[in-house]
């Protein structure tokens, strides 16, 4: 069998190009949002942007988006740029745009801006049009997200705020942020994921020792020897950055070997028949499927570079060796008794879904092994029917693809339809509030 390995040059799209913008774009017109709204979306990443855009097509315009960064997809692209990432793993058909309406999709947007693209990027678009795998430049994806946010009036409905509490009742939900509170008929949590912390046994818990950082923190430029711990795409970017800086890089992979593939999710779960594998099966069977079909992997394009660096001795790969202890200096102690001494170590240990625990009461989340109990059809929280989840938190209802951009779109379509239908049947919040006040 012949294995096709795409060339590394596909990873090198330009960043920071000028893109045409929708006229009349404005940010939020007041420093604080209104005290009430039909819907509050918590989180303005790709999932939050998708939900807000879909609700706009359903005619839901009384909307407040609360985000810690205060700009649609801001934190998402900050993290991408910190890694120096230039292309996305998601293909052109996976994007936060709205399906089922006359709307501009990502491939349409890229073709409309053909003159801005490089010859390599144009070839990738032709690959996408022919139904083949293609990579999407970060620059194109960010410009498209800005277009979505502007054309669906998401930017002007987004406020900066760190959400402290989400308090559901039978007829409303109150979202309390650091500077304001908003009460809404429905809330959609698009919380994304947070980095996975190292085990407490590595250094006794708490902050990492001197010389150790996580992947979403800047990597110091000093030092000739760098260690990267992790087996996923983030680790691959960190390794490539270190090699480009002329460092000797040590790569610690707990499993017997690294995994190269198009996506870190089995492709069947992006299709209806794959998602149907989750329908009607037990919780234990779902956990087994999640563990078996969502595993850390690296895009094929990295393979030639990393294999060449290993052959040249610039990259030393420690396969099948788990870390038992980390000491300042920096020393990585492995289970076979060996020790790796480096100037700096970066931990890329994956992420964990943010499911609403810590924001909502326990009886609303109904946490079960790190996953919330959700309605299988609408992704509403079983313990808080006016609160919905889109993104990683919907994993045990939607399947492994829930964490990916395509999974966001599937969840968004169901949640937006459910919220819009409920609003049509509900008494408007402001009217209900006034009636209560008269009584």
Automatic annotation (TrEMBL):
Lineage per the UniProt record: Bacteria, Bacillati, Actinomycetota, Actinomycetes, Pseudonocardiales
Sections of the chain in a coiled coil: none
Protein name: FAD/NAD(P)-binding domain-containing protein
Ranges for domain FAD/NAD(P)-binding: 38-254
GO molecular function: oxidoreductase activity
InterPro entries: FAD/NAD-bd_sf (IPR036188), FAD/NAD-binding_dom (IPR023753)
Gene3D superfamilies hit by this protein: FAD/NAD(P)-binding domain
SUPFAM superfamilies assigned to the protein according to its UniProt record, in alphabetical order: FAD/NAD(P)-binding domain
Superkingdom classification of source: Bacteria
């Amino acid at each position: 069998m012949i294995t096709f390995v795409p060339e590394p040059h596909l990873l090198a799209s330009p960043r920071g190009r000028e893109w045409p913008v929708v006229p009349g774009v404005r940010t939020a017109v007041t420093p604080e949002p209104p005290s009430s709204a039909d819907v509050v979306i918590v989180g303005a990443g790709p999932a939050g942007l998708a939900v807000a855009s879909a609700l706009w097509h359903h005619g839901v315009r009384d909307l407040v988006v609360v985000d810690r960064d205060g700009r649609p997809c801001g934190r998402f692209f900050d993290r991408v740029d910190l890694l120096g990432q230039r292309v996305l793993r998601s293909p052109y058909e996976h994007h936060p745009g709205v399906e089922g309406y006359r709307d501009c999709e990502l491939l349409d947007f890229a073709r409309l801006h053909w003159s801005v693209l490089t010859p390599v990027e144009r070839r990738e678009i032709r690959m996408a049009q022919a139904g083949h795998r293609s990579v999407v430049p970060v620059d194109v994806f960010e410009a498209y997200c800005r277009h979505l946010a502007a054309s669906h009036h998401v930017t002007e409905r987004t406020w900066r705020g760190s959400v402290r509490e989400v308090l559901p009742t039978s007829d409303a939900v109150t979202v309390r942020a650091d500077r304001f509170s908003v009460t809404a008929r429905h809330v959609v949590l698009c919380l994304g994921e947070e980095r996975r912390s190292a085990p407490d046994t590595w250094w006794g818990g708490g902050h990492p020792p001197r010389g150790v950082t996580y992947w979403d923190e800047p990597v110091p430029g000093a030092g000739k020897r760098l260690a990267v711990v992790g087996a996923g795409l983030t680790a691959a970017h960190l390794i490539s950055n270190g090699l480009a800086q002329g460092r000797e890089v040590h790569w610690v992979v707990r499993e017997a070997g690294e995994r190269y593939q198009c996506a870190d999710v089995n492709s069947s779960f992006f299709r209806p028949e794959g998602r149907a594998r989750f329908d009607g099966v037990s919780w234990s069977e779902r956990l087994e499927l999640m563990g078996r079909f969502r595993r850390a992997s690296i895009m094929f394009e990295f393979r030639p570079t990393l294999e060449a660096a290993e052959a040249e001795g610039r990259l030393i790969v420690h396969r099948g060796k788990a870390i038992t202890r980390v000491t300042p200096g920096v020393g990585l102690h492995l289970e076979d008794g060996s020790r790796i001494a480096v100037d700096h170590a970066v931990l890329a240990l994956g992420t964990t879904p943010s499911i609403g625990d810590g924001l909502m009461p326990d009886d609303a989340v109904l946490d079960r092994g790190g996953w919330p109990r959700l309605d299988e059809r609408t992704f509403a929280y079983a313990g808080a029917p006016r609160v919905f989840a889109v993104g990683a938190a919907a994993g045990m209802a939607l399947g492994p693809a829930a964490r990916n951009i395509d999974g966001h779109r599937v969840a968004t379509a169901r949640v937006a339809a459910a919220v819009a239908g409920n609003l049509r049947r509900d008494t408007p919040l402001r009217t209900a509030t006034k009636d209560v006040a008269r009584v």
